[in-house]
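Lab notebook, bench 4. Still working through the backlog of constructs that have no structural model yet. Next entry is a single chain of 194 residues. Request: give me the structure tokens for it.
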Amino acid sequence: MCSLCCGLLREKEIHCPPQCLYLAKHKPYQEKRTITKKQTSLSTPSSFEEDILNDERMAWLAYSIEMPLKEFGEKNDSFTDKDAILALEYAREKIAKHKGLLLMPDEWIKPQNDIGESVYQNIEKCQYEQRIILSGSPQTYKKEEKINCLDRVILSIKYYAKENYEGRNYIQRLLERFEKIDELSRQKKVFTIT
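Model written out:
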């Protein structure tokens, strides 16, 4: 395999063995490139009102995206902000390339990011119901909405990581946020009307 093919297909189309010298040498560079790839295309909303997460429907999707990150962050202290970005980039790429029910013969040999796969599965299952009390058909999300929400969460990670992607600044904030949500949900009481 030539060096050009190695660089283009490494960990995208080809499962590289962990002991490969070229993989070990270039993996940190490739991860950093993936993280900074969208830096120029993603920008913070100019005002609070423009943030897509102000929409309750999109906030619910973001919650579904962040749930696997929270679970992996709780279980594994070595799970970093960089790992979260790489997982979301994996899910984003999979959604962007989604071909419906068409099965591609080479899909099973591509490298898989387990956390990214969990995020992807959560997004695909996610539906939004306007009111719990009222019956109605749950709304599914469009491909563009999923990608926009993933981009918004990636932007949050980059903001809280403050260029220290090997740290856990975003993960710590995420765990604290979910802890507050759990605490608030325990304080609420449900009364049945009879």
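Notes after review: Residues 42 and 155 are 7 Å apart (CA to CA). The first helix runs from residue 3 to 9. Flag for follow-up if needed.
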